[in-house]
C-alpha cells in the first residue's frame, strides 16, 4: 500500500524546499511531493505541525558486533538508530575482529540486511588491525561495500602511513576519517587540560593534541590531494584550521558530536565516568567555536560517535573508565535544543548536517526527497518536550551523561524505504 | 555550629566556617592526646574501615590511632587497584565491606575521584585519605591547624607551597583551605610542575624559590617523586634540589619566624637539608602529632 504523509512542513535542503506539502510513497520510493495529494488507497500519516525531512544519516557510530555483543549488536544499534531518527548509520571499523577484511564487511552487511529496519554502511580500516603500520586492502574493502576508511579509536601516528592512506584511497574515491589525536602529547590524559583538570587532579589532554593532528592531516591532504574527513572536532583551534583549509579549496570535511556542542569540561566535576569521552569535553569557548563552525558550514555533519559501553566497564574510577558516550538516541534532541532553540541556527542548516552533509562526504545517494529517491524520511516534532531516560534506550548500553535532561524537539517518526521503522507514539521499532 | 556533612571528600566543598569548626574541635581533641590515658568513649560501638589502595603507613596509622582513641573498632584493608578486566572492582569491594555493617570508610586511592565514586556506592560515611592528584583533606587541615597554632591566625598569612604542584593532592587541599580562611598562597615550582589554570584557584605562581623565600610566613614543602624525572618533567634530582631545595643558606634570607613544613616522608638532601629539618622553625613532627587530633575531630564530627 502507498504511504501518504500529509500536511507536514517539508524541509528538503537538496531541493531547496521548505513548505507545507504532502509526500506520496510507493514501493519504497518517493513518487510525489506537492500540495494536497488526495488520500486514495493509501495509509495516511498526519504530519500537521511537524517537520518532514529526508532520512537522517549518522556518519559515526560504533556498533560492537563483532566482538562485544553485550554492549551493542548490529541489530540493537540499528533499533537505537531508528529510535534516534536515523535511516542510515555508518559503523566504525574498530570491532573485534577489525573491519580490515572483506569477510567482516560482508558479515556486517549480511546481519544488517537480515535486521533490515535501517541501512548500515560500514567503514573499513585504513591499516591492518588498526595498528597504523601497513595499509589494509582498501580496494577489496571498497568492493565489499565500505563507504570510507578510518582507524577511529586510534589516530594514525605515522605521518607517512597517513600520507599513504590518503593517497591510496583516492583511487577508490574514499574519504579517510581521522581520529585526530597526538598520543605523545595527550599521554594518559582523561579530560580537557585546564583549570578543571587541575582542580580535579585528573591528567589533562591539551587541545593542541587534537590541533597538531588536524594541522598535520590537512597538510597531508594538501600533499596528496586525498579526501580527508576530521571526526568529532572538539576544539576552536581545529575549527579554525578547517576554515583555512576550506578557503584553500582542499578536499577536507568535518563532523561534530552533540556532546561537544552541548557540554563543557565542567560536566566532569562529579567524576561521572559517563562524561569521559575521546576527544574530551572542552571549554565554553570551544563549544561556541564548534557551533559557529556548524553555522557557517565549516563543519559539514553532526555525528554521534555513538560508543556504547557496559555498566561494569563504566562504573569504575574515572581514570579507569573507557571513553565514549551512548549518544544516538539523544543526538537529534540535543541538536534541536542547542542549535535551533538556543543558538537560533536555521532549521534547514541543521537538517543539512544530518542529510546532504554526510551524504556528500560518503557518496550516498540519499539525504534528499527527490522524486524517485529512496523513501527515507525523518519526522521531527519541534515542540515536543521530553526527558532523556536511559532505561528506555533501544541501545544495549546506558552510558550517557544526559540522563534526566529535559529537551525540546525530537525525531518522532522514522521511515526507511517506505516503511515506518520507528513511531514515537507507540515507542516501537 | 551544627555539623551536617556525611562525607569528607575534599576541602573545596567546605565553607570557611566548617573548616574553622573542624580546627576548633581539633583543639579539644589535642588535649586528650596529652593525657596518660589517651582514650574517650565517644565512638564506642562504631566500626571504621581503613581501605588503602596505596601503601601509606603514616596516614593509615594516624587514622587508626585517631579511631582507637575515640574507642571505635577499626579494620585495615590493603587492596589492589584493578579494573573489571583484572578482578574485583572498587564498587564490588565497597559493597562487600559495607555488608559487614560498618559506619565509615577511610579511603586512600591512586585515582582521583575514587572517594566520590565510593560515596555513591555505599551508605557509610566516606573520608578521603588522599585520592590521586586531587585532594588529601585531612593533610590540608592538619597543615592549616599547625599554621594557625603557630601563627595565631590564617587570615593575611603568606604561604608558599613548594614542589610538585601538578601531582600534589596536598597542595590542592592546602590551597582550598588556606584561600577560604584568607591566606595568600604562592605556588613555587619549575614550570613543568605547575598545572594549567592554577591561577584561577586564586594563587600566585612563581618559578623561583629565591624570589619568594624572603617574603613568606610559611614554607610548605612537598615531596618530590623520582618517577617524575623519568617522565621528562625535570632533568635531575640534583638540579631540582639546587633550584628548589631548602638549605640553611636559603633559610637565612627568610623571615626570622618563618615556619617550615613538610607532609613527609622527607627526601633529606633533596627537598630540604638535615640542618633545616633540625631547625627549630621546622615543625614536621608537630604536624604528625596534630594529624591524629585532626583525624579524631573529623571522625567525631562525621560519626557523632
Ligand atoms: Zn574517535
Ligand atoms: Zn569514534
Fold and architecture overview:
- The complex is a heterodimer of chains A (429) and B (304).
- By secondary structure, chain A is α/β, with parallel strands linked by helices.
- Helices cover 31% and strands 23% of the residues of chain A.
- Chain A has 14 helices and 18 strands.
- Chain A has helices at 74-84, 102-115, 138-144, 159-170, 183-186, 195-200, 208-224, 236-247, 258-262, 284-296, 311-314, 331-342, 347-354, 356-362, and strands at residues 2-12, 17-26, 29-34, 42-46, 51-54, 56-61, 86-91, 119-122, 149-150, 176-178, 191-192, 204-205, 228-230, 252-256, 301-302, 377-387, 406-416, 419-423.
- In chain A, helix 7 (208-224) runs parallel beside helix 8.
- Chain A is globular, with a radius of gyration of 20 Å.
- The model of chain A has no long low-confidence stretch (mean pLDDT 97).
- Chain B has 304 residues and is an alpha/beta fold.
- Chain B is built from twelve helices and nine strands.
- Chain B has helices at residues 16-33, 57-69, 90-98, 114-121, 137-151, 169-180, 209-212, 226-230, 237-244, 248-251, 274-277, 284-303, and strands spanning 47-52, 73-78, 104-109, 125-131, 158-162, 184-188, 204-206, 218-221, 259-261.
- Chain B has a five-stranded parallel sheet. A four-stranded parallel sheet of chain B has the order 2-1-3-4, with helices on both faces.
- In chain B, helix 5 crosses helix 12 (284-303).
- The longest helix of chain B is centred in the C-terminal third of the chain and has 20 residues, at 284-303.
- Chain B starts with 15 loop residues before the first helix and ends with a helix.
- The chains are: A alpha/beta (429), B alpha/beta (304).
Instruction: Give the cofactors and ligands.
Output: zinc ion
**Helix fraction of chain A by DSSP (H/I, runs of at least 4):** 25-40%
DSSP summary: helix tally of chain A: 14
- Specify the structural class of chain A: alpha/beta
Instruction: Give the low-confidence spans of chain A.
Output: none
User: Level of helix content of chain B?
Assistant: 25-40%
**Which ranges of chain B are low-confidence, i.e. pLDDT below 50, for 5 or more consecutive residues?**
none
Per DSSP E runs of 2 or more residues, the count of β-strands of chain A stands at 18
- Proportion in β-strands of chain A: 15-25%
Main beta-sheet annotation of chain A:
8 strands, mixed
Would you list the SSEs of chain B in sequence order as H and E?
HEHEHEHEHEHEEHEHHHEHH
Overall pLDDT level of chain A? 97
Largest sheet properties of chain B: 5 strands, parallel
